[in-house]
Automatic annotation (TrEMBL):
<keyword id="KW-0472">Membrane</keyword>
<keyword id="KW-0560">Oxidoreductase</keyword>
<keyword id="KW-0479">Metal-binding</keyword>
<feature type="region of interest" description="Disordered">
    <location>
        <begin position="1"/>
        <end position="41"/>
    </location>
</feature>
<keyword id="KW-1015">Disulfide bond</keyword>
<comment type="function">
    <text>Iron-sulfur subunit of the cytochrome bc1 complex, an essential component of the respiratory electron transport chain required for ATP synthesis. The bc1 complex catalyzes the oxidation of menaquinol and the reduction of cytochrome c in the respiratory chain. The bc1 complex operates through a Q-cycle mechanism that couples electron transfer to generation of the proton gradient that drives ATP synthesis.</text>
</comment>
<dbReference type="Pfam" id="PF00355">
    <property type="entry name" value="Rieske"/>
</dbReference>
<keyword id="KW-0411">Iron-sulfur</keyword>
<comment type="similarity">
    <text>Belongs to the Rieske iron-sulfur protein family.</text>
</comment>
<keyword id="KW-0679">Respiratory chain</keyword>
<feature type="domain" description="Rieske">
    <location>
        <begin position="239"/>
        <end position="334"/>
    </location>
</feature>
<keyword id="KW-0812">Transmembrane</keyword>
<keyword id="KW-0001">2Fe-2S</keyword>
<dbReference type="InterPro" id="IPR014349">
    <property type="entry name" value="Rieske_Fe-S_prot"/>
</dbReference>
<keyword id="KW-1003">Cell membrane</keyword>
<dbReference type="InterPro" id="IPR045603">
    <property type="entry name" value="QcrA_N"/>
</dbReference>
<keyword id="KW-0813">Transport</keyword>
């Protein structure tokens, strides 16, 4: 027997949201229980409570603005290498900690302010609306616009000027955090890319033995890697400095050196060139003894070390910078200054 065959008075009943009985009609076993009656909040009936909520929301937005200003101040003022102790994490970067905390507070306060605004001041009346076809009728469109205007009025966006203005301020300042981060994407290296750890009088130290190099230590056709005197692997900035100062030393027969300046800057046929490829900065380590060519393993840029380190193949844009060297009074190889041009890949201000 189907539900249509059962008399309506014999159908089981349920309770609605108000506790009243809702009888299921034939063919409709799940009746609409209805909505509970709306209970006004204290902010709906007490303007002083509404103003208190308004001040709380405004305070959160103001706190977000201050946190954004703190983010920018931390990014500009805190050094990268400064560390602080944070329990129970331990020693961490002061800059990273400050940036993370200030940005978290700025975003949290905007979200918390918006949530508190919605829960205490915006209308909380539940409205049931039937679903309609996608192509709405003109009267439906008019109703939507009317509902939108009504919602804008009920949100008190125009009346609560303190909330509106502080929200605009918080939303306007938060994007500045991202703008400040974009600074690192721009060419602001100053003179860092033009200078390395090499200077006049610094001896060439064998990177493997950590001993000063003499001319007799370098054989014809050999490739030796060197670093400046005074640089130590345990230094906190070693990786940063060696990335610019890494040097490769090759001994050629003086008659095989084609470039006159290269010959003048050498010592007994020993030439010193930057180890950093001028394409994207990969370390060069492959040397062809017969041709005096060095090959970058990343993208196969090839340089002729007997001809000023010029590019003979590959995507590199310019020759390897040469370091002028000499033999000092103690018989050790030493630099006569820094590289004459920036090492590594090209950049906007290189010229």
């Amino acid at each position: 027997m189907s539900s249509q065959d059962i008399p309506e008075e014999n159908l089981p009943s349920t309770q609605d949201a108000h506790g009243g009985a809702v009888t299921k009609t034939a063919g409709d076993p799940f009746a609409d229980p209805g909505l509970p009656p709306h209970e006004p909040r204290i902010q709906d009936v007490d303007e002083r409570a509404a103003q208190r909520s308004e001040r709380v929301v405004a305070f959160l937005f103001l706190l977000s603005m201050l946190a954004t200003v703190g983010f920018i101040a931390s990014y500009v003022s805190l050094p990268v290498d400064k560390s602080i102790y944070v329990f129970p994490i331990g020693h961490i970067s002061a800059l990273n900690f400050a940036l993370g905390m200030t940005l978290a507070v700025a975003l949290f306060c905007i979200g918390a302010g918006a949530v508190h605004w919605a829960r205490t001041l915006m209308s909380d009346v539940e409205v049931a609306d039937e679903r309609h076809a996608i192509a709405a009728e003109p009267d439906v469109k008019a109703k939507v616009m009317a509902d939108f205007k009504q919602g804008a009025e009920e949100s008190a966006f125009g009346r609560r000027k303190l909330i509106r203005n502080t929200m605009f301020g918080a939303l306007a300042l938060v994007p500045l955090s991202g703008v400040m981060l974009l600074r690192d994407l721009g060419p602001l290296p100053g003179t860092k890319l033009r200078k390395t750890a090499w200077s006049e009088g610094k001896m060439l130290i064998n990177q493997n033995t950590l001993q000063p190099l003499r001319p007799e230590d370098i054989q014809v056709g050999s490739l030796t890697f060197a670093m400046p005197e005074g640089m130590k692997e345990e230094d906190h900035d070693f990786q940063q400095e060696i990335a610019k100062a890494a040097l490769m030393i090759i001994r050629l027969q003086p008659e095989n050196i084609k470039d006159k300046r290269e010959l003048d800057w050498s010592a007994d046929g020993i030439v010193a060139f930057s180890k950093i490829c001028t394409h994207v900065g990969c370390p060069i380590s492959l040397y062809e003894q017969q041709t005096h060519h060095v090959l970058c393993p990343c993208h196969q840029s090839t340089f002729d070390l007997s001809d000023g380190g010029r590019v003979i193949f590959g995507p590199a844009g310019h020759a390897l910078p040469q370091l002028r060297i000499k033999v000092n009074d103690k018989g050790y190889l030493e630099a006569m200054g820094d590289f004459a041009e920036p090492v590594g890949p090209a950049y906007w201000e290189r010229g």
